[in-house]
């Protein structure tokens, strides 16, 4: 039996039910078994697995440790109701059944640990309301940035501080792609294929490369940092699917690297949220975060800037975060999700009102007056040009023009771009990215 792996502890054992024994769930079981004595010593309780819920019991037997055989079941409803289990680990993914499972566990008076960022981002209000009604925690460190303890940092380490900004790289697949394009000079298609071969990207990578995964995570961060109850419709999202190698090279000419940056920023008029490829100064530590790694910068009133770096995905980094949440609950430290009770909910700044300096790449016919017409279109939106670069070309040929413009609202930037694209000398669409100049 699995219990034979656990050393005696000073408190009664903590029974858990694990729903989902795939890549993450199987790794959690491995961590609990291989690190049992340390976990017991640090939590003061033996962590005892009471049931492991899987879709296919026979298939699971071939993948999991032999000691799991007697714990496997395909009946999650019965497993959740077990009186000898205090904690549910929801590791199945998806939304519908996972939501039902978590709600049933909370109703039964059990604590919950989950890595399900998509579910919490879309159904967080319902789940956290149920948690408050039950007086039980929903812990989700593994849902954001893998083993980086950003949830614990915001919930505990900075509990007495005022957070002004959280910004970072929180999708390893997109960061690996951009790094490969920058370092190896490969195209987006080749970089994506490499991530799939290495297991960083799914066969359908849409959630990663279109920015949805990062958006789910920044919604959870914004809820915890600011009490912001935002939805996916509140986050302007631009992924890396259509990203071009030449834009990385042009950005480098101005001293910038390009990262898919997720941001939640407190402004005087509300909370600003975004996920989009962003120019970052090459001298900033976030610019050096390469491959599938993640990094999150937090800026707060008293602690100033703090930076957190580590593996943002992967079976064992995620499993380590799940087990850490279980240990917190075993210690009695499980915290209820922050709801901002007693304080007004912050307003959300509309995407078009969010302001930043921007990078623009235009493809135009090299003719007299082209630059003047572009500058005029921007000036009509009160946008001033900071720097400009034009490649050499013969008169009448197509040429790229790269501009850095001073801070302006997204709405004005897009209005200026529309005017430029309507000019007869403009070829194709204008590419734009915000510039992040850290304080």
Automatic annotation (TrEMBL):
It comes from the Bacteria. Gene3D superfamilies: 3.30.70.260, Dihydrodipicolinate Reductase, domain 2, NAD(P)-binding Rossmann-like Domain. The keyword Oxidoreductase applies. Pfam families: ACT (PF01842), Homoserine_dh (PF00742), NAD_binding_3 (PF03447). Residues 359-431 form the ACT domain. Pathway: Amino-acid biosynthesis; L-threonine biosynthesis; L-threonine from L-aspartate: step 3/5; Amino-acid biosynthesis; L-methionine biosynthesis via de novo pathway; L-homoserine from L-aspartate: step 3/3. Its EC number is 1.1.1.3. Keywords: Amino-acid biosynthesis, Methionine biosynthesis, Oxidoreductase, Threonine biosynthesis. InterPro entries: ACT-like_dom_sf, ACT_dom, Asp/hSer_DH_NAD-bd, HDH, HDH_cat, NAD(P)-bd_dom_sf. It catalyses: L-homoserine + NAD(+) = L-aspartate 4-semialdehyde + NADH + H(+). The keyword S-adenosyl-L-methionine does not apply. It is an enzyme of class 1 (oxidoreductase). CDD domains: ACT_HSDH-Hom. Belongs to the homoserine dehydrogenase family. This is Homoserine dehydrogenase.
């Amino acid at each position: 039996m699995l219990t034979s792996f656990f050393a005696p502890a000073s408190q009664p054992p903590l029974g858990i039910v694990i729903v989902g024994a795939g890549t993450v769930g199987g790794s959690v079981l491995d961590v609990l078994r291989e690190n049992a004595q340390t976990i017991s010593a640090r939590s003061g309780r033996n962590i005892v697995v009471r049931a492991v819920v899987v879709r296919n019991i026979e298939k699971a037997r071939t993948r999991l440790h032999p000691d799991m055989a007697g714990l496997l079941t395909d009946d999650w409803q019965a497993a959740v109701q077990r009186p000898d289990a205090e904690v549910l680990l929801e590791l199945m993914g998806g939304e519908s059944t996972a939501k039902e499972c978590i709600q049933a566990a909370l109703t039964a008076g059990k604590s919950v640990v989950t890595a399900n960022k998509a579910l919490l981002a879309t159904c967080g209000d319902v789940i956290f309301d149920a948690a408050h009604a039950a007086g039980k925690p929903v812990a989700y460190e593994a849902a954001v940035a893998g083993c980086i303890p950003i949830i614990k940092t915001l919930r505990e380490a900075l509990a007495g501080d005022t957070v002004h900004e959280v910004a970072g790289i929180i999708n390893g697949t997109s960061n690996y792609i951009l790094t490969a394009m920058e370092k190896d000079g490969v195209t987006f298609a080749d970089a994506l294929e490499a991530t799939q071969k290495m297991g960083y990207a799914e066969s359908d990578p849409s959630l990663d490369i279109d920015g949805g995964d990062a958006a789910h995570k920044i919604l959870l961060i914004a809820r915890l940092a600011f009490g912001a109850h935002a939805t996916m419709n509140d986050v302007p999202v631009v992924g890396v699917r259509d990203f071009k190698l030449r834009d990385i090279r042009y950005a480098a000419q101005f001293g910038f690297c390009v990262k898919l940056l997720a941001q939640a920023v407190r402004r005087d008029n509300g909370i600003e949220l975004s996920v989009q490829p962003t120019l970052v100064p090459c001298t900033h530590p976030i610019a050096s975060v390469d491959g599938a790694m993640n990094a999150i910068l937090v800026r707060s009133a008293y602690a100033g800037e703090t930076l957190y770096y580590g593996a943002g995905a992967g079976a064992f980094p995620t499993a380590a975060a799940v087990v850490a949440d279980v240990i917190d609950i075993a210690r009695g430290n499980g915290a209820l999700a922050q709801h901002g009770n007693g304080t007004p909910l912050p307003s959300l700044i509309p995407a078009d009102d969010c302001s930043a300096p921007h990078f623009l790449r235009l493809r135009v016919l090299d003719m007299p007056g082209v630059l003047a017409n572009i500058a005029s279109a921007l000036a009509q939106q009160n946008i001033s040009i900071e720097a400009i670069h034009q490649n050499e070309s013969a008169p009448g040929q197509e040429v790229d023009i790269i501009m850095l413009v001073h801070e302006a609202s997204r709405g004005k930037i897009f209005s200026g771009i529309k005017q430029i694209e309507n000019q007869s000398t403009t070829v194709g669409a204008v590419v734009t990215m915000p510039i992040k100049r850290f304080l």
